[in-house]
Model the fold of this input.
Amino acid sequence: MVTFKKAEECKSKDDIRQQIDLIDHELVKLFAKRTEFVREIVKFKEKNPDAIVALERKTHVIKQRAEWAEKFGLDKVVYEQIFRKLVEHNISIEMDLMEKSIKQKKNNV
Done:
């Protein structure tokens, strides 16, 4: 497990950069974990674009994550954009998986 320092415990610019690198690495690992779940959810959704996009859920997630960011003193608009991009990327993964599943079923018929 990674141990993070508090920002005020850092003694140099390099120390701070090392902590930022550790945090970024953990973020990427979490994005990868999130993507595993995105790939799995396709199994539980109807095989149509509306079910994949799930507009109501998409809107809720983006809004909620932006609000979470704001509660931590972050720029709500920036994090809304980040999560919008993330969710849209995840939707494209789901669409690709859905299309592959449909093609595979047609080929097996």
Notes: The mean pLDDT is 94. Residues 5 and 11 are 11 Å apart (CA to CA). The radius of gyration is 19 Å.
